[in-house]
Every structure is written in C-alpha cells, then in structure tokens.
Amino acid sequence: MTQPFSLSDIRTWDRTHVWHSFTQMAEYEPWLIERGEGNWLIDDQGRRFLDGVSSLWCNIHGHNHPHINRAIEEQLHRIAHVTSLGMGNSTTATLAHRLLQHSPSSLLHVFFSSDGASAVEVALKLAFQYWRQCDQPQPQRSLFLALGQAYHGDTLGSVSVGGVSRFHAMFDPLLFDVVRGPCPDSYRVPPAFEARQATAGTNSDASYEAALASHYLAQYEMLLEEHTDRIAAIIAEPLIQGAAGMVMHPRGFLRGLRELADRFGTLLIVDEIATGFGRTGTLWACQQEDVQPDLLCAGKGLSGGYLPISATLTSNKIWQAFLGPYEQSRSFFHGHTFGGNPLAAAAALANLELFETTHILESVPSKAALLKQLLEPLRNHPHVGDVRQRGLIAAVEMVADKRNKIGYPWEQRRGVIACRRAIDEGVWLRPLGNVLILMPPLTITEEELQLLVKSIELGITAATGV
Predict the structure, then answer these.
(1) Which residue of 133, 198, 383, 392 has the smallest Cβ count within 10 Å?
(2) SS3 of residue 339 by DSSP
(3) Residue 154 carries which DSSP code?
(4) 70-358: CATH number
C-alpha cells in the first residue's frame, strides 16, 4: 500500500517540480489550494479565501457545485474519452446543439478544443483556409487585422495576433506578420482627440463615447483601405481587453468593426474567452451591440470553470467552404486528442443548464450596480487613475501621477503588494501590473462584494502609502 506523503514533501515538489505559469520560480512560495466551497477557496492550512478573480476568470457558479459535480460523475460512469476524429458521442453533440441555441444566430457549427488559445488558433486557421476554398477564392487574403495590446493566448498563432509586449516581445522572431490598429482605450485616449473634444465640447458621456469610437474606427478604416484585399479577418476581444488591463472600449466600437468587416468583405472573429458566459451582463459580450460574428471563440467559463474545454463557433458560410469529395482535400486538418472530451462536455452542459434554471444572468445587473456603488469612492483616491467596469468585470488602476495618467514602474510591483494585503483580509486577487482586477463568480453575494472591495481599498493603501 502506498504510504501517504507529508505536506512538507508535497510543498517541496510544488516548488521544485511544478513549473507554474506566469510565475518567477526563483521567488515562488508554495500555496496549495485543497478544496473549494461556493465562492471560496480553502488551502492546506484550512484558511479560507474569497475567489475574487474566479480562478483565472473561469469559475461561474462557484466551486464544488453539486449540479456540475453530478453531471461529471454520471458521464464518468458512461465513458470518459471519445476522440473527435471520425466519431462522436451524444454528450458532445448535445452540447454543440445547446451552445448554438444560446449564441448569435449567425453561428451554426462548433469545433471543440481544450483551451482558449487553441480555440483562437482554430479560428485563425479556419479563416485562412476559408479564403482558399470558398466559391470565389481569394488566396491573397493572408493577413489578420488585430487590436493594439490584444491578448488571445500563448500559442504562436494566438501570440502573433496578440500585442502585449511584456508577454510577447521575446517571441517576435517566431511570429507571423499582422496588421495592427490602435488599442481602443477609453481611459488613455489620444491627446489629439482630447484636444478636439475640448474645443468642440460634448453634450453627454454618450456623445463623447460615440466620438471616441468613431475616432478609433477611422484608423481601422484606413488600415482596411490600405490592405483592402489582403485581410483574412479582423480579430477582437469584444468590449473589454483583458490582459491589457481590462481596457474598456468605447460603446459602438465593436458594432463599427462589424460594419467595416462587411464593407471590406472580410471576416470578424470575436474572442469571448474571457468575456463570455455572463461576465458583462449578457451571455456573450457581442450581444450588447447586436453583433453577429463570423467566428466566436469560447473557453474559460464554458464548463463553468471545471474542466478544460473550448469551442470555436462559426457560420454556415465558412462550414460550406470545407465540404467536398475526399480527394479534394478540403477537410480541416486540425484536431487535438481531447477536443470535445465528453467529461468536459458534460460539465459544460450542466453549466448551461444552471444558466437556464437559476436565472443567474438576471442577477448580474443588480450585483454590478452594487459593485459600482462600492467602488465609486475610490475614484477620489490620489493614486487611483481609473475605475472601470462592465457587468461583473471591474478594474482599479493605480497611478503614480493621476493628472498625467502615469503608472508606477512595473518593477515596483505595486499590484502585487496590494493583492498580498488583500490575502490578509481573506480575499484572493491577481493583478495585471498596476491594475487590480475584480472578476468574481456570478454567484457572489452582496456581503462578499463588500469584502472584495474592502480588500481592494486596503490593498491600495498598502501599495501607495495613502
């Protein structure tokens, strides 16, 4: 019989054997989470921490949810793995149908993968191959138009269309060329635009946002005109750019991208890996601007944050371009071993069922309103440059110079300091540089929201000295 290992042994292995992602292992101190209960994480010491970032933005209904647990267990007693190469299974097929029922009507087909970056890779390859096999082939369409400071994952294709230099600069020699527009930031807006608006004046916040969206869209229009017949697809995170620091787009920008894609005859890919499954208040962020994409990438919350599964949803127009006799070799030659895994699909089905039976989406507006109210006083802090929010996604950005919107040098790790202080309050957060991210499970309670914001306040004081 195997002897039980000591906690000391396991901590040593976690520090020396496990290579943690986005972590400097020379500084890593083991922190082992052993259990989850609702919106709380419980470590090996029995300490409880509110999961303020949904375990990397993926948990939706809380941890250890009985409905999702039961669905996984029932599937486990049927079969745990079925390849998607030349065969299928009823659970995954049902998931595809149910997922499309909840998605924009332009999307009629689903390709399953295991993680968000892979879903993006699929979307890029589908768009590229589509232009070589459609009814009127345009093989010169081999470029992608991406947003400044975009993040779409860590595989080489997804990094190529990404634009966060701190993550991606090292790999530049390995990446393919893209056309890149500006980051449509509502906080750090171009000085020239601000000057024009100051001269012209604006009647309301809405008219200011509309003008800002038009300003950014004009630059994307110029890029499309310059590369008019070479763009295979535009790819964008809808409404919010996550790894860029929860950058909020001006309202109407996504709608404008859809219109530009139509005008210039190209495809639109929306990366809903972080924004999907109710985070912004609708199941998909693109629904807030009534945008029908050609391809949609989903991940993270697809299984409620339980098991690795992602999906690339696409239109019938793209699907049709891949059909033909075997000898024409029009198939999509892409697939991973665990794509469409039935265990993960069972969790994803249970996740969708909870959206239908608990009416969790209907609770988001009131919780978002409370979160906004709780965060509002932080706008007056001398070292808070911006407080931004869409639904239950929020960010508080600390700055060294509020007037000029100058952040602290990243080497000072102000965000890390703030999040360490939050841990003392029993709240788990993970920053993006100077930006403190709040993305709790949709099941968070009013009392937990109050604790979450209190921990942010104390963290900012610890990080800024004010």
Answers:
(1) 198
(2) coil
(3) S
(4) 3.40.640.10
